[in-house]
# Entry
Amino acid sequence: MPRFAANLTLMFTEVPFLDRFAQAAEAGFEAVEFLFPYDHPPEAIGERLNAHRLTQALFNLPPGDWAAGERGLAALPDRFEELKGGVETALGYARATGVKRLHLMAGMADRTDRRAQDSYRRAVAWTAERLQKAGLDLVLEPINARNMSGYFLNDFAYAADLIRELALPNLKLQFDLYHCQILHGDVTMRLRALMPIVGHVQTASVPERHEPGSGEMNDAFLFAELDRLGYDGFIGCEYNPRAGTREGLGWFAPYKGART
# Structure
């Protein structure tokens, strides 16, 4: 049965961030993810995870100046040293939370720019090798232009080709069903083709990014397909609740038994 991680950046926002862990556990989730933990001490997050028997499924490496519109540093040739410092910061949070995988955001850059391509490749290889020493996976996520116009990594094939070319054992694909449907469609066949390199999965309805089952995709079919394909990781619920987090959890009821 699929296992789900509540995304605490988007879900349970009715309460302050550190209180969302309790809310997720009470709702029946066995894991959580979020975009960034860096506004809170790592020990505070680790305490919440332990208190509520939650697994930390994923979070992002530092993205640069998020408030100013930056969305990662990897494809920015002049920011490599800053990226390396961010990786060390993230590793402190990884130790405190027990997370097993981190996501590297690519940044706002033209994917046809050779300098951006070279910068991205160097950053991905260096970060994967650094995380491997800590026993962690690195995941790369293609993001659609509707939500993040100008983002460098906006194609699943490009990400897959780089992962296969670098052939690093801990470098994997973050497969967001929502982004894949908007970018390419044919989600099931892409899942089947790319499953050998998938390290994390996320979900939201298309086109409005609300609860699974409320849009054009057959989300229950895709969750069952992930089971058939042998995916044993968490599915991150990276969606915007339509009218309150708890009010929209009807879709989750058939899966709550997965919590241990």
Q: What stands out?
A: The two ends are 12 Å apart (CA to CA).
